[in-house]
Write a structure and sequence with these properties.
Elements lengths: L2 H11 L2 H18 L6 H25 L1 H4 L17 H23 L1 H21 L6 H9 L1 H11 L4 H24 L1 H7 L4 H4 L4 H18 L1 H4 L5 H23 L3 H27 L1
Length: about 290
């Protein structure tokens, strides 16, 4: 492999698109918490450290799951299953990124955000990842570290946890279930082949999966309105969030009524549209 190809393989290990998504959601949390002025230097440090942490966790996750990825068509071309990077190299790279990120957060941002980052490492790498082959409840466990980005963005700016921060956490927590269950339904055969115990693998009919999708989308609707009810935003966000959450709920119900790959893909697309638009609207209405 050339140096450029090796660099590209390491970059791929960090899951750059997911890392960018995480940084954007964390940035929204930072903006929303910055009610007494905006600290640009701290913002840059916080986002850089969160990007490093996300990259390190993604790398460690792929190291642990390298044997599972070899059995799934959609992950076979990843750097470890394809042999472009040696397992020990990925392990050292992941540990290095994670360690640097935690130190960076502690020194350049604040200890609280660093501690929240540590809960992400423990929750995602040490609990969620190994439990994926043991129980379908791993999705619930993984949703906790998965909902940390806006919380970390908030504490990076405010250095404290308030009710408003937990509302952001709750929105992201609930959003994940329709999103990831749609993915799990689309790739259920891959997951079964790898021995990953996702709900669509355990319950092949899709009835319970559909119920779960609708249940969490339904819960998300009122929770998504809390930022306006708590005074974080105004009427623009309230009505926008209501329409967006109705759209997400409708997409969830349509999928639950007919559990096909086509409907699951539509729900996945709806989830990808929903969250960034919701947070953009939230930040815009809070500042303007």
């Amino acid at each position: 492999m050339t140096v450029r190809e090796k660099f590209a393989a390491y970059f791929e290990l960090t899951k750059p698109r997911i890392t960018l998504f995480i940084v954007l959601i964390a940035a929204a949390g930072f903006f929303l918490a910055s009610t007494q002025g905006f600290d640009y230097f701290k913002f840059i440090h916080a986002m850089a450290a969160i990007a490093l942490l996300s990259s390190g966790v993604a790398t460690l996750n792929q190291f642990i799951e390298r044997r599972l990825d070899e059995r799934m068509r959609r992950t076979l071309a990843r750097p470890l299953p394809s042999g472009r990077i040696a397992p020990h190299a990925a392990l050292y790279f992941g540990i290095f990124l994670t360690f640097i990120a935690e130190i960076y957060l502690w020194l350049a941002v604040n200890p609280l955000t660093s501690l929240l980052g540590l809960t992400v490492v423990v929750g995602y790498v040490c609990l969620y990842t190994p439990l994926k082959t043991k129980t379908s409840l791993s999705t619930v466990i993984g949703a906790f570290p998965g909902a940390m980005p806006p919380l970390m963005g908030w504490t990076a700016a405010a250095d404290q946890l308030r009710l408003e921060a937990w509302v952001l956490f709750a929105i992201l927590f609930l959003w994940q279930f329709p999103h990831f269950l749609a993915i799990a339904w689309m790739y259920r055969e891959d997951y079964e082949r790898a021995g990953i115990v996702m709900l669509p693998v355990v319950e092949a009919e899709g009835r319970v999966t559909g119920q779960q999708i609708v249940f969490y989308a339904l819960l998300l609707l009122p929770v998504s309105l809390f930022p306006a009810l708590l005074g974080m935003t105004g009427a623009l966000y309230f009505y926008g969030a209501f329409v967006l959450s109705l759209f997400y709920l409708w997409s969830s119900i349509r999928t639950a009524l007919s559990m096909t790959n086509k409907n699951a893909r539509r729900l996945l697309f709806a989830s990808i549209i929903y969250l960034p638009v919701l947070f953009i609207l939230m930040v815009f209405d809070s500042k303007f």
